Amino acid sequence: YVALSYVWGDPNDTTDIMVNGHTIPITVNLASALNAFRSNILPKSEAWGSSDQLPERLWADAISINQNDLQERNH
């Protein structure tokens, strides 16, 4: 998998995405990174091996961790 830690940008400049049937607001910068990943234009890392395909899974902290829950973020 590929992990995106925090994608910086104006936290008030958001767009909505759908995740498992739920609408989630994310920053425009993170949306751009997700679109680049989906479009296969992100630079490939040597750690991905010789495959021409990007990993199928992506972890984005801003989506996978409840950013409004300090205890969850710290965990």
How would you sum up this structure, described in words?
The protein is of the alpha+beta class. It has three helices and four strands, in the order βββαβαα. The strands form two sheets. Strands 1-4 form a two-stranded parallel ribbon. It is globular, with a radius of gyration of 14 Å. It starts with a strand and ends with a helix. The mean pLDDT is 80.
SSE topology sketch:
Elements: E1 2-4, E2 14-19, E3 22-27, H1 28-38, E4 58-60, H2 61-64, H3 70-74
Protein name: Heterokaryon incompatibility domain-containing protein
InterPro entries: HET, HetReg/Transcr_Mod
Domain Heterokaryon incompatibility: 1-75
Key attributes of the depicted protein:
globular, two-stranded antiparallel sheet, alpha+beta
Largest sheet at a glance? 2 strands, parallel
Helix and strand content put the structural class at alpha+beta
Give me the number of helical elements: 3
State the order of secondary-structure elements, H for helix, E for strand. EEEHEHH
The unreliable regions are: none
Protein name: Heterokaryon incompatibility domain-containing protein
Organism: Tothia fuscella
Domain Heterokaryon incompatibility: 1-75
InterPro entries: HET (IPR010730), HetReg/Transcr_Mod (IPR052895)
